Model the fold of this input.
Amino acid sequence: MGRMGINSKQYSANSSDYKLLEEVGYGASATVYRAIYLPLNDVVAVKCLDLDRCNSNLDDIRREAQTMSLIDHPNVIRAYCSFVVERNLWVVMPFMAEGSCLHLMKIAYPDGFEEAAIASILKETLKALEYLHRQGHIHRDVKAGNILLDTNGVVKLADFGVSACMFDTGDRQRARNTFVGTPCWMAPEVLQPGSGYNFKADIWSFGITALELAHGHAPFSKYPPMKVLLMTIQNAPPGLDYDRDKKFSKSFKEMVAMCLVKDPTKRPTAEKLMKHSFFKHSKPPELSVKKLFVDLPPLWNRVKALQLKDAAQLAMKRMPSAEQEAISQSEYQRGVSAWNFDVEDLKAQASLVRDDDDMPETRGEDERIKTIAESNEKIHGGELPQDVCLNRKGKCLEIEVQESGCQEKKSMEKENGSSNEMTASTSENDMVQTKIKTVKSRQTQSGPLTPGVAFSPSLSESSGIPERPEIEIQPITDKFRKAPSFSGPLMLPNRASANSLSAPIKSSGGFKDSLDDKSKANLVQIKGRFSVTSENLDLVKDIPLSTVQRRSSQGSPLRKSASVGEWIVESNQTLPSQSPKEFSNGNMSTSLLMPHLQNLVQQTSIQQDLIMSLLNILQPAEVVDAAQNGKLPPLPRCSENNGSVECAASDRERLLLIKISELQSRMINLTDELTAEKMKYMQLQQQLNGITSQEENGDRIEGHA
Ligand SMILES: Nc1ncnc2c1ncn2[C@@H]1O[C@H](COP(=O)(O)OP(=O)(O)OP(=O)(O)O)[C@@H](O)[C@H]1O
Done:
């Protein structure tokens, strides 16, 4: 890497050639700065990826930078160069002066954009996807937070942190069997263990992004992450509602419906989608997009305002659960992608939310059929193609559709200056049997970046400390969306620690190349931005609670271990106070008991599946090895049924559960530490802000004097 680029301009891989200015964005693993490239006096964006915070291994990061450097399309952000500065990877790229669509919505359009702007933004994004797919890439993180805008209305798709090469074989292709992306935007097949996915996953995310731009937030964004996963798999796809979304055209609704079809083979390609009437009539972005920024403060001030709002929210909310809620919300607002492992919180949130609770206007089957049928009529002249299928269970008719470099302006104009698009209610009450299989530590490759990556000897040599921007907080906070968002982009308190704890789950049987052959699916490989690992799955219902440090709601705000089972069970909060005796004394009515019994059955079945899957892939030899290495307690002997498969399985099960409980304890401790650090950081930031503003006041007074 280092110096590279198709651009005629050459950018050096020397950090001292860059002067970092204001912070203009931040993600789960990176902070983005406006910067000046001193030799050319050129404004650029520098994305500083904290390698310690990064959930990806060095190979993934290198791939991101490499991929970005080879990109040559007006609607795709590419890297001018990248290099390592101490524990950071700096990626130099064009500065997009208006930031991301997500930030813009948070600041000024909490209910989404108007259709003309949406059409232009989506069309440009679709061009980017068409290009990437043609080049063999899957973007895997299409969302409003990754659609960047320039002052003149140019739209570019950013962030290849999770892109995968579709045409690759071997390790890279294996990456397609990993969970990467942001849950609200993730296609059902991406969430389905072992099913694999292809570029059509981007089309789903594109459809979700369309809804996000239309409403100001993604569907399901108010739900806890685990619920989002389940709802995406279980429910009918979200979409624009004919009645509720009256302001949007029929062709927009049709276009979204075409993208949000659960069967990926029935989604159109980007190329095909581009021919949809919705895009044919869209205005050029310089007409419809440019006007969105009029009268807005400069990007860095908007970002600062969002940050301050986040900080204020956190400071105000003292209750642990409230803090957690605020963090989730702020993460959503920031468009951060990562997992929120605070499962107690997730469970609590999930328990309060019914699928159809606050979705009075769910999109019914008839409506969806109508939408797609009408769409089909347009495309196929009214003839239903062979691949139209009415899926009774899914209650959904699906149709196959055949398929700046930003120069710093000398004037620096800017420098000085309903959401219930939910689905039809859950079609069946049957819980998703998400079968988690595997647990085998994925080999994480690391080592030096590719030749050409410039290593800076030390951070002290860089001009690493960005200047603090002047804070001009606009009275815009009242425009912020107020409803808390618990999901969407999720929060991983500490990627590094989470990563170090987790052996990403890997298939015991390899990965599946064929995207359509779901019958052979056999893995959950969860990696990259999402590391759902053994400790995230609370399989330890049967473990004595004393072995796992659990916090009461008065304790640390952060508690660990996702529990598919527990989460489901505790979605009914009325029962825990009941003792078994009370259940059996006949005072409970059947109607009260039944839902809980059903839940118990579901939970048990899911847990059994999970445990059996884990056990199946855990080779006896590994357990013995681990025991000999002191990693696991010694294998207990089974005297009665020596050598029987059942006995071995139960021994292994116990060992596994003990191991999981240990991991959970460690996770709890680490998260507590992280919470404490976060609080310290916020306090320091507030103090710093105070000092900065005092100094500025002092300067002004001196200046006047
Ligand atoms: N070239 C750019 N010009 C201006 N702003 C940018 C640029 N690149 C990124 N940003 C801003 O920084 C934010 C974070 O960047 P980015 O998405 O690359 O980080 P990330 O850590 O990969 O985020 P995530 O993982 O949450 O998607 C973006 O949402 C956008 O607002």
